Amino acid sequence: MSELVALDTSSPPVAKRVPQSRQFSGVSIDDDYAWLEDPADPEVIAYLTAENAYTESVLAATGPLREALYGEMVGRVQRTDTQAPFRLGDFLYYVRTEEGRDYDILCRKRGDLDAPEELLLDLNAIAGDYLSLGFFAPSPDHLFSPTP
Questions:
Q1: Domain end: 75, 90, 117, which one?
Q2: Where in the chain does DSSP place strands (E)?
Q3: What global pTM score does this model have?
Q4: How many domains does the chain have?
Q5: Labelling 122: which of 17, 74, 93, 133 has CA 20 to 30 A away?
C-alpha cells in the first residue's frame, strides 16, 4: 500500500541549484537547473509534483472560470475542416482534419475538386505520443506510390 505524502502548498517550491557547465560552439554556459531535464529522475518528478500542487492550490478559486473558458475555446474549434487547396501542376493539394483525430491528413486531387481524393499522408496513422511535421512540399514530378 502506497503512503500519501501531504505537500506544503502554502509557498512555491524552490528548485535546488546544482552548478553545471556546458559547452556550446566553444562557449561555456553555466546552468544550475540542468538537473531538471531528466524526466525519469525521482527528484525531478517530486519537484514537478510539488510545483503542480502549488499551482493548483493558488488557482483553485479560478477552477470554474478555467473550465468555462476551456469549454468555450474548444467549442469554437472546427475539428472537421479542409484548408484551401493550392494548385501545383495538374494537382490540387490540400490538408484536412477530422473530428476525433489529432493530426492533419495531406491529400490531393488531379485536375479539379470533383476528382477522387488521393491520400498522401495521414499523420494520425504514424503519430506516437507526439508528432510534428515541419514542412511538406510535393515533389516536382508529383510521383506518389501509396502503400496498400
A1: 75
A2: 21-24, 27-30, 81-82, 86-88, 91-97, 105-110, 117-122
A3: 0.56
A4: 2
A5: 74
Task: State whether 28 and 71 are in the same domain.
Answer: yes
Question: What are 85-105's pLDDT values in tens digits?
Answer: 999 999 999 999 999 999 999
| 86 grid coordinates | 493550392
Q: Is 147 a residue whose pLDDT tops 80?
A: no
Provide Rg for the chain, Cα atoms: 24
Same domain for 38 and 89, yes or no, is no
Kindly list the distances between the CA atom of residue 51 and the CA atoms of 4, 26, 137, 142, in Å, as whole numbers in the listed order: 17, 34, 42, 51
Residue ranges making up the domain that contains 118 = 79-148
Task: Give the number of other Cβ atoms within 10 Å of residue 124's Cβ.
Answer: 15
